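Box S1 | Example of a co-folding query
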Amino acid sequence: MQAHLTSYEETIFSKIIRKEIPAAIVYQDDLVTAFRDIAPQAKTHILIVPNKFIPTINHATQEDEAALGRLFTVAAKIAKEEGISESGYRLIVNCNEDGGQEVFHIHMHLVGGEPLGRMIAK
Ligand code: AMP
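Box S1 (continued) | Returned holo structure for adenosine monophosphate
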């Protein structure tokens, strides 16, 4: 966990965005990149991230609103392509320790393809 840190460095996600390391990228544009989660927790599990390095949602500013908004519209587009629009899916953004954030570059999880159960498991 890095939640106690006050400074943050680029993560592996920046390398994926720049295509410096391999990932199963399903979508990329000027603002966001989407790729399959390396350890999927549902039949469909895709991460959608802003291309800009923003460590946590606490660091988001007004100038990030276009990219953060794009996360939602790209999620809906990918859900349609994955064939899960109608069956349903869940979008998750974790923040810091209690939220379970492990990679400190904002990312939206798109999970679905099967019933997901309760929203919060403790
Ligand atoms: P979070 O707990 O919200 O920070 O989620 C981080 C997610 O990143 C986890 O679901 C990991 O499986 C995923 N992940 C970590 N490294 C990679 C990678 N190189 N490629 C794809 N997904 C990754």
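The pocket of adenosine monophosphate is lined by residues 12, 23, 35, 37-39, 47, 94, 100-103 (CB under 6 Å). The beta strands are 25-28, 32-36, 44-50, 89-92, 108-112.
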